[in-house]
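Q: I'm writing up a methods section and want to include an example of the input and output format. Could you take the sequence below and give the corresponding predicted structure tokens, formatted cleanly so I can copy it straight into the document?
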Amino acid sequence: MIKSLLSPFRVRGFLFQWPADLLTNIGIEMEMLMLGWFILTETKSVVLLTVFGALRYLGTLIAPAFGMAGDKWGHRKLLCAMRASYAVAAAIMTVLTFAGGLGPIPIFIAATFAGLARPSDLAMRNALIAAIMPPDRLMNAMGAAGTTSDCSRILGPLAGAAIIAGLGMGPAYLIIAACYTAALVLTAMGGKDLSHRRAAGVGEASSIHEVGEGLRYVWRTPCVHAGMWLAVLVNATVIPLTGGLMPYIARDIYHLDRFGLGCLLACFSFGALCGSVGVSTIGAALPAARTFILAVLSWCTMVLIYIFMPGPLGAGVMLVLAGIAQNFCQIPLYAMLLRVAGAQYRGRVMGVRSLAVYGLPVGLLVAGWLIERVGFTAMAVGSCVFGFVATLAIVLWWWRALWPLTAQGNAAR
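A: Here is the clean output for your methods example:
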């Protein structure tokens, strides 16, 4: 078990990428908790909170272009450029905070610019892992890489809340800028590997043609096509209930403060960490498509039960279980997409996968609108039930590509 978990770290590129991804994620989690809470307390508006959350995913519209750029110029080079932009933006926000100029308008502007690149960060790091990792270690590596997000979602909110309470937002932003800068250095130190080479067949045609070819590949490959729709579905239904809406749930449903919000987020992240470790240790034996289908159904069920928990303790337990289900869904889904796409389409398929994240801002905006009209409980139940039923519909439509053990989506390589 330990051997499977540690095997990806024998690859030099992954050895540097893991801490780089961890630091990037810690910075993002601290920043989102700080600014989300600031927006909610300053404006007293759940709609503006959901607008702030939605702006973070503005770049999903251009994610296929990021994927094409990664295939064309190298995923590591692109990832370094993206993380350099995070460090510069954090430095500007640090200056504004110390100068007393922080307010809703600067935050919305910063969220808009950050939202152009960050939705593609996960896709590019996954494409980089697929480029440097042997196929038989890909699922284990994806699970190990997933622990960076999970650990950061535990450490980021708790550390952010504690640092703000003890030192204020200015020092907290200094730490965030330092995390992004260190992540940039570590990403660049990964060295030269397959990720710096242009993918086969990329570069001879125009960029627009190459992006279009990636979209056509997704459309005509059944298991990839189904996986994209499933990604859109979970982003629009269950993820808002354990992500962007958590400040509202913590304050208005469970009457918790900022630290209580951090604890709820940490519960979900602890479950996700357990899921990542589980996938990393047994991932090679899992049929990818079957695993993520069953995990989505479990995820919707756990979130539905979480909605009806009478207190934060029960909610925390269900969030742990929901976090486990999330990563038994997302990691096998990424692994399936990368295996099927191969080197030629890897970046562009990951770019289209990032485009699927656009379901999240849409889901957040719809959820904010519905909460003010039908109430939180009715909105949340409707989201979970719709997610469960729509998942079954996707499975039935693409049954042959997803469920049989001999199907392309369940292939080991």
